[in-house]
Specification:
The chain has about 300 residues and is mainly beta. The protein has one helix spanning about 1-25; strands at about 25-35, 40-45, 50-60, 65-85, 90-110, 115-120, 125-135, 140-145, 150-160, 165-170, 175-185, 190-195, 200-210, 215-225, 230-235, 245-250, 255-260, 270-275, 280-285, 295-299. It has a 20-stranded parallel beta sheet that branches. The protein is flat.
């Protein structure tokens, strides 16, 4: 009798929850700021509520912060646009379980800008885009955590020098995709870390660096057991002197690494480590020019 009463109670809670979701009014925020020294902060949360935030800032020294929390088959949507400013900051935090998290940050025509995105939860679909164009010394950082997630990340830093992009994707049984695109720029650093402890992640990393002067650095670390790890690094540029490093560590993994480095002067360095037990390892290094160094260690 007690089991029957409990089942009925849970069914009522579920029905009430669905009814509340049907009646829920979405949280919508739209902020437009023009000028210097502006700051915008948006906080949205709730169960069965769809969150949507749009921030547009044109000017100098702007700061935008978005915090969105949701639960149970809703979506968090965030868009931040910052144009013609230096030392701008954009921060997005999206949390929840069984949530679709979508984030986009655009920072154009500025130097020393910083974009940070954190998406976490279980059973989520996380999609993230950061675009930083026509600027130097910019930083883009993404962290996606949780279990049973589909994580997609794209960072584009174009037409600028000395930019830095960092992606970290952690958890179990996730589908992780990361793309870092640093084109028409030099002295950039791209780092991808994809970790999974014990259970069947699919980790895909693609880094493209293209600049006439070269001197770009790309690092990919894929750690864990029972994973499919696939890393691709392409470095092009007349200046050469690029560095690529791939580490794929763990047991019972399928590891694939491809590094391509083109540049007339050469001086490129490529290092690959595929270590662990019971792995299937495939690695290739292609280098053009003179005075290049390539190393592959498997075992």
């Amino acid at each position: 009798m007690l089991k029957k009463v409990l089942t009925v109670a849970l069914a009522l809670v579920f029905v009430v929850g669905l009814s509340g979701m049907a009646r829920a009014v979405p949280n919508t925020s739209d902020v437009d700021q023009t000028g210097t020294g502006n700051e915008a902060t948006v906080t949205q949360d709730g169960t069965f509520v769809f969150n949507d935030s749009d921030i547009d800032q044109v000017g100098d020294d702007n700061k935008a912060t978005v915090d969105q929390d949701g639960f149970f088959f809703v979506s968090n949507e965030s868009r931040i646009y910052q144009y013609f400013g230096n030392r701008n900051e954009a921060t997005v935090d999206q949390h929840g379980a069984f949530v679709l998290n979508n984030s986009m940050i655009d920072q154009y025509n500025g130097n020393y800008n910083k974009a940070t995105v954190e998406q976490d939860g279980d059973g989520d679909g996380n999609d993230h885009r950061i675009n930083q164009y026509f600027g130097n010394y910019n930083e883009a950082t993404l962290e996606q955590d949780g279990r049973f997630n589909e994580n997609d990340s794209m960072i584009q830093q174009r037409y600028g020098n000395r930019n830095k992009a960092t992606v970290k994707q952690d958890g179990k049984r996730n589908d992780n995709d990361s793309l870092i695109d640093q084109w028409d720029s030099n002295w950039n650093v791209a780092t991808v870390e994809q970790d999974g402890d014990g259970d069947g992640n699919r980790n895909l990393s693609d880094i493209d660096q293209d600049g006439a002067g070269g001197y770009n650095v790309a690092k990919v670390w894929q750690y864990g057991d029972c994973n499919l790890n696939d890393s691709m690094i392409d470095q092009y540029g007349a200046g050469g002197s690029n560095v690529a490093e791939v580490r794929q560590h763990g047991s019972d993994n399928d590891n694939i690494s491809n590094i391509t480095q083109y540049g007339a002067p050469g001086g490129n360095v490529a290092n690959v480590e595929q270590k662990g037990n019971h792995n299937t390892n495939t690695s290739s290094v292609n280098q053009s020019g003179g005075m290049n160094t390539g190393s592959i260690v498997q075992g």
